[in-house]
Amino acid sequence: MRGYEAAQILKEKGITIEQVREEIAYRKETGALSNAPQNEAFMNMTLNEVLRVEEMWEI
Predict the structure, then answer these.
(1) Is 44:34 a contact under the CB 8 Å cutoff?
(2) What is the pLDDT, as a whole number, of residue 28?
(3) Would you state the pLDDT for residue 1?
(4) Nearest-CA neighbor of 56 among 2, 1, 4, 17?
(5) What count of other Cβ atoms lies within 10 Å of the Cβ of residue 32?
(6) In the chain, what is the straight-line distance between the N-terminal and C-terminal CA atoms, in Å?
(7) How is residue 57 annotated by DSSP?
(8) In angstroms, what CA-CA distances link 14 with 18, 28, 29, 30, 54?
(9) Could you list the mean pLDDT of each consecutive 10-residue stretch along the chain, which spans 59 residues?
(10) Residues 43, 10: contact at Cβ < 8 Å?
(11) Contact 47, 38 (CB under 8 A)
(12) What CA–CA distances, in Å, run from 12 to 6, 9, 51, 53?
C-alpha cells in the first residue's frame, strides 16, 4: 500500500512516471542516498520505495 500512497502524493506534486524512472536510473548509476535525490520530490525515499512507486503507478 505504501507504494500506491507515495505514487498518489507524487502525482499530486506533478511528478510523471518518466521522472520516477529517471530517479531510479540516477540512484542505480550513482548510488545516491535518499538525502541526495536527483529530484527533490523523492527526498527521504529509499530506492526500494521509489521502485515500489514505479510498480504501483498505474493502479
Answers:
(1) yes
(2) 96
(3) 59
(4) 4
(5) 15
(6) 11
(7) T
(8) 11, 23, 24, 24, 15
(9) 89 97 97 93 95 94
(10) no
(11) no
(12) 10, 5, 18, 13
CA distance 15 to 24: 13
The three-state (H, E, C) secondary structure of 25-42, written as one string? HHHHHHCCCCCCCCCHHH
* Predicted local confidence at residue 2, as pLDDT: 82
CA-CA distance, 21 to 10, in Å (whole number)? 13
Q: How far apart are CA 19 and CA 27, in angstroms?
A: 12
The closest of 23, 15, 17 to 47, measured between CA atoms, is: 23
Look-up of cell digits 520516477 = 20
